[in-house]
Specification:
CATH superfamily of the domain at 3-93 and 162-222 in chain B: P-loop containing nucleotide triphosphate hydrolases
Distance between the termini of chain B: 23 Å
Structural class of chain B: alpha/beta
Structural class of chain A: alpha+beta
Helix content of chain A: 40-55%
Order of helices and strands of chain A: HHEHHEEHEEHEEHEHEHEHHHHEEHH
Number of helices of chain B: 7
Strand content of chain B: 25-35%
Number of domains of chain A: 2
Oligomer: heterodimer
Strand content of chain A: 15-25%
CATH class of the domain at 3-93 and 162-222 in chain B: Alpha Beta
Strand order of the largest sheet of chain A: 2-3-8-5-7-6
Largest interface: A-B, 26 and 32 residues
Number of helices of chain A: 15
Chain lengths: 417, 235
């Protein structure tokens, strides 16, 4: 029975010739471009999140507190209400840093690094440039790839251990100052301390803020420079699964009492914007396929009019209204299937073509950078676009099919005779 | 002979601002193995009566019994199943599916019924078409045949599921006299040699006068006069 309905459906569709191909092509184009668009947008999103996740710590604990500490008077009098209380503005770093590190190391999956972050000015050849100075311990920073090995043009974090005052800076900062690898710079801390540091490493991450505004020195040197011995004010957690960050941040904050911010919280507005972007994308994709569905509706609708006599014959032979509905819905779905397959091929071809597009961007001292369009290859793009197309085709087929099923064979036979 | 089809005060009124009565007060019975002609002037309700007997239309009033079953009790699906298994239709125009070959058109009701295997269906279609002189045209499309040949294919299709009742609406209406004669003989043979019951609407006196019985309609009602041998009863 099903093969009979399929035979009838195929016969009807093949009998339409050019109209059939136009409808299949319209669905195919819709599916194909939807896939390419989804791949581009998802690729861009993945690339952005990848940068957020990889270039930033998954959880960052700073020496800030979200709320003021509970005041002793509040412990004594339940009715106490204190207004306008704020955390101390004088951030002196984290209390008992070794204890905090030990507490976190006991349960946090992944790696921890700790830093002293301070502001300073770097001077060279009569030029001054404000930067953020990070006091670090080279080994854990290297393990978590705070700066990727391939981003180092010369030297690396371990060069900080080579004796004396050493600093690793970005190539952008070096260019601004006219400095180079091996140059000795003068660092001035916010407390007025001045020290000479030799450039033992140069990096290029591609992020201007980092390349022009960061300098890395040994933790001890930073503590001396800022006159804050044994102080850290920043703990960074790198987790095996970035999606754990929110839970880990909440637990860490509850445990150590300092503000712990996950990468999701830090980029909340950006992630919300991505959700909105996805909604817009799928709306556009849905609209494209809906328009293709109108084409299918048009053909099936025309078919039901043209084949009214056939419908009457089939009904007189003993076919039911349900059979007629199935026949035309299957015809609609056939357009959907054929269009989806064509669209998948087209979408794949477009993605391959887009993946070969190259942009040559000026990369400064590292020469010419070649950048590809970020593309995401996902079976879900194909399944979602195909699913939309099938749904659109099924609805487009069902509406005229319902009308065809209701046709009164007597009226048609009388009309024909 | 047992009664195959029976009607009691059958009526069909088309609902409209001014309702149109197609047939009214039709009480008759048709026995099996009988060749009955429904005659009457244009607009007298011949085809309307045939469509009611063939379950393509539902009566507004009265009862229709086929094989002892009251058709009012059947759902649309059951009526369709009864049409498929127990009735064959031949219309004035062949009404073959134009994209299907002669053989595929004849196989269509058998495929829908699903009782025979593909090879059995093929063999039965070829046998039917051969018996109607169409063995040389099995794989042709309907448009490649003459009017008479197409009508014979339509008869073969009507007989595909071996139904006891064949209903024909002006089966010779669009044919020349030679083809008309051929079609009449085929229908007549169905009754005489194959035990079928044939009910045919016809304008042609030459056919009507050679059947077992004639049901004559005027203005949607049974005429006062009927064939002498007619078992038709007027209320």
């Amino acid at each position: 029975m099903t093969t009979l309905i399929l035979d009838l459906a195929v016969t009807h569709i093949l009998g339409r010739g050019r109209q059939t191909w136009v409808a299949i092509l319209s669905v195919g184009l819709g599916v194909g471009f939807s896939i390419a668009m989804a791949a581009l947008m998802q690729g861009g999103e993945d690339d952005l999140i990848d940068q957020l996740v990889n270039d930033m710590p998954h959880v960052q604990i700073s020496d800030e507190q979200r709320e003021a500490r509970r005041q002793p008077v509040e412990n004594v009098f339940a009715a106490t209400r204190i207004r306008g209380l704020r955390p101390l503005e004088d951030r002196r770093g984290m209390l008992n840093p070794e204890q905090i590190r030990a507490q976190l190391s006991a349960w946090v999956p992944g790696e921890l690094v700790w830093r002293l972050e301070t502001q300073g000015v770097v001077q060279y050849a009569g030029r001054d440039q404000g930067i953020t100075i990070y006091g670090i311990e080279p080994q854990p920073e290297t393990e978590v790839e705070a700066i990727k090995a391939e981003d180092f043009i010369r030297g690396d974090f371990s060069s900080l251990l080579s004796g004396g005052n050493n600093i690793v800076i970005g190539d952008g900062l070096a260019n601004k100052l006219g400095a180079d690898y091996g140059t000795t710079l003068t660092l001035v801390s916010s407390t007025g301390q001045t020290r000479a540091f030799k450039v033992t490493g140069l990096f290029h991450t591609g992020t201007t803020a980092r390349d022009e505004g960061e300098g890395y020195v040994l933790l001890k040197k930073a503590q001396i420079l800022s006159e804050r011995p044994n102080v850290i004010n920043n703990i960074r957690l790198y987790l095996p699964d970035p999606d754990m960050a929110s839970d880990v941040a909440a637990r860490a904050e509850a445990q150590v009492g300092y503000k712990a911010v996950s990468w999701q919280e830090a980029n909340e507005s950006l992630l919300e914007a991505l959700v909105i972007r996805n909604v817009i994308m799928y709306t556009v994709v849905g609209t494209i396929l809906l328009v293709a569905g109108f084409g299918i509706y048009n053909i099936i609708s025309t078919l039901t009019h043209e084949k009214a006599r056939d419908i009457a014959i089939l009904k007189s032979l003993g076919f039911t209204a349900r059979d007629m509905r199935r026949l035309f819905v299957i015809e609609g779905l056939m357009f959907g299937v054929a269009g989806s397959v064509l669209g998948w091929l087209l979408g794949f071809g477009l993605c391959v073509a887009l993946s070969m597009v190259r942009f040559e961007l000026s990369g400064g001292v590292v020469g010419q950078e070649i950048t590809h369009l970020p593309l995401a290859w996902s079976i879900w793009h194909y399944l979602i676009a195909g699913g939309f197309a099938m749904l659109s085709a099924a609805v487009a087929g069902y509406l005229p099919a319902r009308r065809a099923a209701r046709l009164n064979p007597v009226a048609i036979i009388r009309g024909a005779t | 002979m047992s009664v195959l089809v029976e009607t009691q005060a059958l009526e069909r009124v088309l609902p409209a601002t001014v309702p149109v009565t197609l047939v009214s007060d039709i009480t008759l019975s048709i026995s099996d193995n009988e060749f009955v002609a429904i005659t009457g002037p244009s607009g007298s309700g011949k085809s309307s009566l045939l469509y009611l007997l063939g379950l393509l239309d539902r009566p507004s009033a009265g009862t229709l019994t086929i094989g002892g079953r009251n058709m009012a009790e059947l759902s649309e699906t059951e009526r369709a199943a009864l049409r498929l298994a127990s009735m064959g239709f031949v219309f004035q125009f062949h009404f073959l599916l134009p994209e299907f070959s002669v053989r595929a058109n004849v196989e269509l009701p058998m495929r829908k019924l699903g009782r025979l295997s593909a090879s059995q269906r093929r063999a039965r279609a070829e046998e039917l078409l051969d018996s109607l002189g169409l063995a040389a045209h099995l794989d042709k499309l309907p448009e490649q045949l003459s009017g008479g040949q197409r009508q014979r294919v339509a008869i073969a299709r009507a007989l595909a599921n071996d139904p006891p009742l064949v209903l024909a609406d002006e089966p010779t209406g669009s044919l020349d006299s030679q083809s008309s004669e051929q079609v009449f003989h085929i229908l007549n043979d169905l009754v005489r040699e194959h035990g079928k019951t044939v009910v045919a609407v016809t304008h042609e006196e030459s056919i009507a006068e050679r059947v077992d019985r004639r049901i004559h309609l005027i203005d949607g009602r049974l005429a006062d006069w009927q064939d002498d041998t007619s078992p038709v009863t007027s209320p």
